[in-house]
Amino acid sequence: MASGTALIYDEEMTTHKLLWSDPICDIEVPERLSSSYEQLRSYQLVERCVHVPAREGSEEEILLVHSLEHLEVAKSTQTMNEEELKRVSENYDAFFFHPSTFHCARLAVGATLQLVDAVMSGKVRNGMALVRPPGHHSQRNAANGFCLFNNVAIAAEYAKLKYGLQRILIVDWDVHHGQGTQYIFEEDPRFEGFFFFFNASVSHTFQVGMGNSDYLAAFFHVLLPMAFEFDPELVIVSSGYDSGIGDPEGQMNATPEVFSHLTHFLMQLANGKLCVILEGGYHLKSLGESVCMTVKTLLGDPVPQITGEMAPCLSAVESIQNVRAAHKPYWKWLAYEGKSPFCFVLYLEIWGFIFVLTNLLLLLLKDAEGNDFFSAVLGFILPVAYSYQPNLTVIAVGPNRSLGISGISLLVALLQGLAESRIFAVIEDTEISLMQSVAKALLGASTPPFGIYVPPTQEKVNKIKALRDQFQQEWKMLQCSGKLSDFIFNSYIL
């Protein structure tokens, strides 16, 4: 099994910079890259990662998703003077050319593909590419929003062709809608099953000030259930951090710690094959801390505790319902809108001691069958557990369990996002393979594929509905119904 985390960075990508005054583009500075790398060095994370060198993406690789005309325009800027560069840049929305831009953009493409190769070949388990210029706004025939070539779209097409992959999940958690990725695959006549379920356009999304609980609620109630049902062979993240606290673009309140949790969840998919590619992020301190949190999680470090009230705002709840309603016809887990099957017995207790004050979340799993696991854990247990914010997580597995080894291992892995990864498994079972699998999960090993999603029975649907109705006022993260709206993430399934 592959281990290790790749980190790709090339200082050459900092030579792309704005040569004239432009109030829209002046936030896209070389320091976005260099300061993030220096922050990684200060946390001593660079030496813990596997160094993978960047390379220039070839013209053939760029043409996997871009037009020849777009490539030729970009090439022509290498010998232009400042006035010519400015004139060409004005043909695009929020983009600027520098004589080194074409070289830097090719490095960004090549670095992304190097990461895909490292992960798919088994050299590493996962990794992050610090690239610039970013890519998710760039379209087949146009630069846009600081982006020249669509690094992630190229990577997805590259992985499909080179490794024969059938299912690639792209998660874009940048605060801005990655319309370039959407348009590239929507317009491709060879592509079937394009899936886009979060509209992240700033003018149509969450209100200003959204925070950690809103992001987590979206993952619990929309992204993760769809992702597990899809069962991807590779996950690629368009990792923008402009939703981070302090960022002038997003004006959101997501703290760096939440990106650790989002990364942790995605690591449970595709046997751990996860490629994280830098997109936006314009508050240097917030960006650097968020990058570090992401890399620490990729390396397997304990996931930090999230503080503050775990209660998504009304706008987030409405947005989640909008997404669920729009995709109800296409996903089995949504067959019963707003009603996820639940078949576990759940106990929540607070044990108070005079000298030892420990908040304990005790989860006792019983009578779990098949893929009911996903709806139970993602739709109920995780939202309640994150609302509770325990200091210790205990999982008790009884001798008469019906939940399989893969389900128990995945549960252990998912719950490691709680309590700074302090987790204690009590197993009343002598099956060696079960204990080995749980031990591997505790050590951060990739969880095995869970299998094909099986729809729930009506009886189990009714059980979870009753539980949700009973507990959602007390545990706000259970709320996932409301009026129609839009949402902040965008995701694509290839």
From TrEMBL:
TM stretches of this protein: 344-365
Ranges for domain Histone deacetylase: 28-190, 204-298
InterPro entries referenced in this protein's UniProt entry, alphabetically: HDACs (IPR000286), His_deacetylse_dom (IPR023801), His_deacetylse_dom_sf (IPR037138), Ureohydrolase_dom_sf (IPR023696)
Organism: Cyanistes caeruleus (Eurasian blue tit)
Record keyword Methyltransferase present: no
Keywords (A to Z) from UniProt: Membrane, Transmembrane, Transmembrane helix
GO biological process, alphabetically ordered: epigenetic regulation of gene expression
Gene3D superfamilies to which the protein is assigned, alphabetical: Histone deacetylase domain (3.40.800.20)
Protein name as catalogued: Histone deacetylase 10
Domain of life: Eukaryota
Any one Gene Ontology molecular-function term assigned to this protein's record: deacetylase activity
